[in-house]
Amino acid sequence: xxxxxxxxxxxxxxxxxAPRQKKKQPIPIRITGQDIPSQVKKACxxxxxxxxxxxxxxxxxALSGHEQQQIVENVHAVLVQAMEHVPKKxxxxxCVLS
Length: 98
Fold this sequence. Notes:
Layout: H1 13-17, H2 36-44, H3 68-83
């Protein structure tokens, strides 16, 4: 069998065809309070920013069912909060995409 440049061989056929799984991150929940169900509901309805080793950050800010004004408000609120965690603040931002 001839191998071509850039060709990869996979030892397990299931690995080559298996779809990529979502990367699930743990969500912090404060359980010291009295109202644990509301804390769980709040955590499920929130969005989180996870910084990785790369240069891009993706944050979900809206759902397809949201109104345009609601999306604009969400984007503004998320950008204000995210800039607190970005080194050099706005001078380190190249673009914001929707």
